[in-house]
Structure formats: C-alpha cells, structure tokens
C-alpha cells in the first residue's frame, strides 16, 4: 500500500469540485488528497471506467464518492417528488458494515448539496429502507442480496443508474456474490460508468472487469498483496495456551489503547472476549452469531473509545474503517494468507502508524510460511517474556479457575491432551448470516441466502494468485 501521507502537489481545489463539496471535504478535516484520490478523482470526473487496486484505508471511498457527487450535482433537486430523485449512482459492497461506513462518508460529503443518499443491507427490517427508497435517493449504497430483495419488492428501480461502484470486488466474489452481481448488472442501463475497486486483481476480478467495464483506466496505489508500509509487523511464537496472557500483556506493555483482535472462528471470538473481560480488558466481540444491531453497537462503542479490544472474525471485520487504530493482534493466524493483508490494513490507516502483532503457535507455522510467501517478506520475530501464563483448563466446555483470583488451573501436560486442531468452523468460510428477525422473517430468509459459502482456502489462495479459476459455489 502506498503511503497515504505522500502528499500530492495539488490540493482538493485543483479538481474543479463544487464549493459545496469542498466545504464538506474541509468539514472532514482533509487538507490534501491521498494518492488514490489524486489519481481517481479526475478520471471519474471525466466519465471513464476505473479499475482501482486500493484497499480500505487509502481514502478510496472519497476517491469515488466526491467525483460521483460532482457528476450528479446537475440532477440535485429540492423537489419532494420521488420521481425527481431516481437512483443514479449505485455503490455495492460485500458487507453490511462496509455499506454503512461508505454511506456515512457519502452522507458527509453530500451534506451541503440537495442530493439524497441511503443504505440498504440485510439483517434489519426492510420497512424503514422501503420508506427511504420510496422517497427517492440519487445515491444508493447496498449489499447485493438485500438490494435484490428490494428489486423484487419493486421498492427500487435501477433503470436510471448512471454510475455503478463495485467496492471490495474481490471480497464480493470470495463471498459468493457473483450470481447476485450478475443479476444486478443485468438490471442496469448498458450505458453507464463503472468503477471497480479491489485489493487484489485475481483472474476472476479481471474476468469480471472484462465483462462489465468499458476501456477502464487502471489505478494502482497498493502493490498487489503488499502490506502497509506504515504498519510495523512482528510475530511472537507463543504456545496456544499462553496467547491470552500475551494479549493482556501486550495491551498493557505497549500502551495499545485500542486493538482489533482477530480470531478464526466465532466460537473462539466469543470465548476470548469473555476471557479478556475477566482479565479486566473492556472487550466486545463481533462475529456471525451476533445480530446486526449488536454488531453495530459494538462497533460504535469501539469507535467512541469505550472498548479496548474488539475481538472479531475476518468476515465481521471486513472493510471496517476505524480511524487511527494503533494496532491489530492476530490471536490466530488466518488460514487464508490474503486475510492477513486485510487484517493488518485495519491499522496504519490514512498515514497513521500502526502495529500488527501476530501470535503464532507451533501448529500455525505453516500459515506463517504462506503469509510470508504472499507478502514476499519475512515478518520480524519478536521476543515476548510472559510475566504470567494463562493456561486454563476447559472441561465440559467450561473454563475452571483454581480458586485463587488471577491464577488458572494448569492444563495437563501436552502429551496427555489431544493435539491442538485448528478450529473447523464452517461459519468462518461463510459470510455473516443473521438470525432471521421476527418481523422480517420472510425477507431475511432471502437475505441470508445472499452469499453461499466460499471456497476452501487452498483453492481460494491458488485463485488469488491466478492459479486456478475461482468458481463460486452458486455458479
Ligand atoms: P477509506 O479508504 O475510504 O476507508 O478511508 C480511510 C480513512 O481515511 C477514512 O477515515 C477517511 O475519512 C480518511 N480519509 C480519506 N481521505 C482523506 C484525506 N484526504 N485526508 C485525510 N483523511 C482522509
């Protein structure tokens, strides 16, 4: 990833953006465009299709939102008639959290204009979304499954979409959204501008671009599968049983005020969150078993600084933008090395420096090898002197302390325990599927059928590296 601090010579006022947009940019506190903004804004303004290699954290949202708002200003209307507010720009994202964040940004950037925007995603009641859509919006941010639900309910008409953004397109394919994307693309006017953003350009992404983009301009601010240069990476070899003590110690010693702690399974996320709470760390967990409302609440509390450690699975954390996050901790190394790049992209954002700490148990060394192969560099090994070990004994699914506070019953020697097996949690390979909300059950059954389970990691990795065609399970 290129350094978002690398200051391009021209400022925002050099793009010819309307003063209402410049005012909003100033309200956000942005003084200089980031490299992706410097490159993309003029191209999007010129109406060209874009194939952008940029991760979340580079300022990519503004790089497409600002010129979209500029291009739509000619249609801004204060009329209350819904007919005067058709959907003209559609922004598709893989996850609800990312949709919500993009929508927040768009709302901010368009706040001084008469353009309307809204966001629709699954897991919440459709009725409020229907009301918003019926009022009319020019800019619609959506996850694919819920958008198709609205199309089916005829609450939205995509016949006047002039600009389509596919945000985190690689993730959308990973999550099995290709059939939904194809359905949506068939509903859009052929003559339109299409902007595709992706952290990686796999063969599948190139195929998607070849089918739906017209003569795109390629913009690349992140080296393929590179890791952020302003992120300091380190790996500690820690026994599985000592990982939790390591997290607590790192939080204290490093003065890491806030971290996202990544785990590979939702069960592991819940358990670790409970344990960290007991260790006195204010913690919340976000994963697929949490309702949308709970996830939003946890995220908001984290953003407000009320939570020190947000324990998250990859799918739940995808695309999260949390400003100035000082660090991430990989409690489990990801099975899919590509997720490592996404995880550590949560820190060192917008030019801030960050620490990416990985805890590697002996059983996980093979994952580390894969990660280093992918990022084409060795991650420095660190030494961690644990002041306390946190070995605990799980019996009948219950953690048992030995009575004295702060000390934990030792586990039996390794030889008498079953070998640690990486948690096989199929949910990890699936996108978030909310429990059907009662009032919206029928709709949610459809929404939860949104993405099918992605491929096993080996195939995924091979496909990311261009080795095999990445077939989606719903092909
Ligand atoms: P994004 O990659 O769009 O998720 O943006 C990452 C973060 O950078 C967000 O918190 C943005 O508000 C912030 N950001 C975007 N553009 C700029 C800029 N030109 N200057 C400073 N911060 C920015």
From TrEMBL:
Alphabetical GO biological process terms: response to temperature stimulus; ribosome assembly
Boundaries of every Helicase ATP-binding domain copy: 41-219
Keyword set, alphabetical order: ATP-binding, Cytoplasm, Helicase, Hydrolase, Nucleotide-binding
Chain location of the short sequence motif Q motif per the record: 10-38
First-level EC class: hydrolase
Molecular function GO labels: ATP binding; hydrolase activity; nucleic acid binding; RNA helicase activity
Family annotation (PANTHER family): ATP-DEPENDENT RNA HELICASE RHLE, ATP-DEPENDENT RNA HELICASE RHLE-RELATED
Protein name, as recorded: DEAD-box ATP-dependent RNA helicase RhpA
